[in-house]
Design brief:
Length: 154
């Protein structure tokens, strides 16, 4: 297998707040991949970086918050975009910082929302915009994990 054929590792942070809502942010309309779609915090793992280090870096870059702890990995999926395979690991996490005021990368993300379990239908916009259900699926997985572990992780 050639180096280019190796899937690119990607991490996603399903950031929970004290009310068990999950943080999502809308990608700007001029993004090459998934323009205008809702997304979770995350991105590609850089050369020599561990998954945890990448998670920590992406949270800081995209929100200004600091990773406090990882609660669970709720997804480990492969997907393809622009002809490149990616292998994504998504984690339910808690962060430190002002949860009401994320420092969004305004050139990359235009708005944010905190999604409760009963509000995940908001993420149907992604599929309607020609995207897919991946973000809705991982946010739903995070909510399912939080409901199953109610009280255990706090």
């Amino acid at each position: 297998m050639t180096e280019a054929a190796e899937p690119r590792p990607v991490v996603g942070a399903l950031i929970r707040d004290p009310y068990d809502r999950i943080f999502v942010q809308r990608r700007s309309a001029d993004r090459r991949l998934f323009p205008g779609c809702w997304d979770v915090v995350g991105g590609a793992v850089e050369e020599g970086e561990s998954l945890l280090d990448a998670l920590r870096r992406e949270i800081a870059e995209e929100t200004g918050w600091r990773l406090r702890r990882v609660l669970a990995r709720v997804a480990h999926e492969e997907w393809t975009a622009d002809g490149r395979r990616h292998i994504e690991s998504d984690y339910v996490v808690e962060v430190d910082g002002d949860l009401s005021a994320p420092e969004l990368e305004r050139d990359k993300h235009t708005e944010f929302a905190w999604i409760a379990a009963e509000e995940v239908s908001l993420l149907d916009e992604n599929a309607q915009a020609g995207g897919n259900t991946f973000i809705k699926d991982v946010v739903t997985a995070a909510h399912a994990w939080l409901a199953d572990s109610s009280g255990k992780s706090r």
